[in-house]
């Protein structure tokens, strides 16, 4: 038996209302191993041509075991779209309104990164609501390499 397909009804996960979200929920991204190609692509996009990011000799002269992956590239691993979080928001999503971050450890090509977003707070603001998430990125050795927060503005009803 065939059903009528409507792309407007296509969802990766069911959309949820602001009131259905829960403090403590964790949204994980798949692990990703960085390569020199990733660093080169980010260097081209960001226009950050500092040799610490690509010159092995330069990096070693300044005490680094290898070129250091751009901090903003590591931050990009916390993009909400790398997880199912924005799919849960669906049509109630209004804006990504803020972020703060601390870079805690160096990242190098060959490192595998594991990022997660955990809902810390849900603040109703009239017909809108603000969601704050803690964002973390760990490496393959379990070391926390990045920590911070994101805030999002959502409609209270869809």
UniProtKB/TrEMBL annotation:
Pfam families: MaoC_dehydratas. It comes from Sphingomonas morindae. PANTHER family: BETA-METHYLMALYL-COA DEHYDRATASE, MONOAMINE OXIDASE-RELATED. It comes from the Bacteria. Gene3D superfamilies: Hotdog Thioesterase. CDD domains: R_hydratase_like. This is MaoC family dehydratase. Coiled coil: none annotated. Residues 23-137 form the MaoC-like domain.
